[in-house]
């Protein structure tokens, strides 16, 4: 049942080229320049006219929501808020007609997300679900939605569900943008092509497995880790830190790289590994100077970079090179080595990576 892999987590990490493809299949037709999202039906119009989109989720799904905030604001010019479901539901939020809630959940059973949706629905908001489990409570409570087709996820740490969420949220953003006219035809076609290619690039990133394992061995005894990224890669840094915490029990924090100087930089010394998600994008030069700031304080830098990068390899202690992609789809690729890093550190420490202590696969209690 683990398909020859030692753990479900590794099997699921390696399934991603297929699960991303499955999540795009029948929806994305890059050659014809077309996008079909049957699940949204008449709600595409409501999304197009939304005053505001509020994404509610927990954990890894919340990180996918953060990436979607960047995507949807850029593509659709609609204000997006991303809320921890547990906070949103308890604070009597200002929400009602004209608001569209997107609930993102692998299991579709997360209690906090479910209740957050219920209260927004009562107040007149339209609810869309992005779920992986067909017929789950969240899917049933939604007015409409788009399923991720990641297949059953057994490992407690979410991996393939995350990349499927990113793919589906990109499709939603693109669909609304093209209907609303907030994207040029050229950019639309370019992003369709980029999404079409992303599965193959993920497959290439998975070839880094042995290299990442060596890096895991080098850093496995660190007490703390810092993960930094900017823009579309900022939520990837958060996700990398969450994976490491869950699987290896090493304390890790993710931050937007520029926030570092407002506090976390005080932690940096020769014992602190700092993982930079630093692929080539519009923030590249800024992140290069953030790497310099860490090196000047003797931190150890592990950098996720893009093929052809001439600068970062000369600065970092370890470099993990992933295929180039448009910044909007880059998180689908740049998260892969971070999943592998957490996995290998957990295994090297002799931990039960499929069932980390104190965690449940779906959190059905508030
Ligand atoms: O099933 P959901 O996507 O609603 O679950 C949300 C979180 O509980 C989940 O992502 C959790 O953070 C994972 N253990 C992360 O790996």
From TrEMBL:
Predominant localisation class: cytoplasm
Keywords, comma-separated and alphabetical: Aminotransferase, Cytoplasm, Glutamine amidotransferase, Repeat, Transferase
Keyword Repeat: yes
Gene Ontology CC annotations of this record: cytosol
Compartments where found: Cytoplasm
EC number: 2.6.1.16
Gene Ontology molecular function: carbohydrate derivative binding; glutamine-fructose-6-phosphate transaminase (isomerizing) activity
Catalytic activity entry: D-fructose 6-phosphate + L-glutamine = D-glucosamine 6-phosphate + L-glutamate
Quaternary structure, from the entry: Homodimer.
Function: Catalyzes the first step in hexosamine metabolism, converting fructose-6P into glucosamine-6P using glutamine as a nitrogen source.
Protein name: Glutamine--fructose-6-phosphate aminotransferase [isomerizing]
Organism field: Chitinophaga cymbidii
Residues of the full protein shown: 247 to 612 of 612
């Amino acid at each position: 049942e683990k398909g020859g892999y030692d753990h479900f987590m590794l099997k699921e990490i390696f399934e991603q080229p297929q699960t991303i493809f499955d999540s795009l299949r029948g929806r994305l037709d890059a050659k014809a320049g077309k996008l079909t999202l049957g699940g949204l039906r008449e709600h595409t119009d409501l999304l197009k006219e939304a005053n505001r989109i509020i994404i509610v989720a927990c954990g890894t799904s919340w990180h996918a929501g953060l990436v979607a905030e960047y995507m949807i604001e850029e593509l659709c010019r609609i204000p997006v808020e991303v809320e921890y479901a547990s906070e949103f539901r308890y604070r009597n939020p200002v929400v009602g007609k004209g608001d569209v809630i997107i609930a993102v959940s692998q299991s579709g059973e997360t209690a906090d997300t479910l209740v957050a949706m219920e209260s927004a629905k009562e107040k007149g908001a339209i609810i869309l679900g992005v779920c992986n489990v067909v017929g789950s409570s969240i899917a049933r409570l939604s007015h409409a939605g788009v399923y991720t087709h990641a297949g059953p996820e057994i490992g407690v740490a979410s991996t393939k569900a995350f990349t499927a969420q990113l793919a589906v949220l990109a499709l939603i953003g693109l669909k609304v943008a093209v209907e609303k006219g907030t994207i040029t035809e050229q950019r639309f076609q370019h992003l369709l092509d980029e999404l079409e290619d992303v599965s193959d690039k993920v497959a290439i990133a998975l070839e880094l497995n042995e290299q990442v394992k060596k890096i895991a061995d080098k850093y496995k005894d660190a007490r703390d880790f810092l993960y930094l990224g900017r823009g579309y890669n900022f939520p990837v840094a958060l996700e990398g830190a969450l994976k490491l915490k869950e699987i290896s029990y090493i304390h890790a924090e993710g931050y937007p790289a520029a926030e570092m100087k407002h506090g976390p930089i005080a932690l940096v010394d020769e014992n602190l590994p700092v993982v930079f998600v630093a692929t080539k994008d519009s923030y590249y030069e800024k992140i290069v100077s953030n790497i310099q700031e860490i090196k000047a304080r003797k931190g150890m830098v592990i950098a996720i970079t893009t093929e052809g990068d001439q600068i970062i390899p000369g600065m970092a202690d370890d470099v993990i090179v992933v295929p180039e992609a448009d910044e909007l789809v880059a998180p689908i690729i740049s998260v892969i080595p971070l999943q592998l890093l957490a996995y290998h550190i957990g295994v090297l420490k002799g931990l039960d990576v499929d069932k980390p202590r104190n965690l449940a696969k779906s959190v059905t209690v508030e």
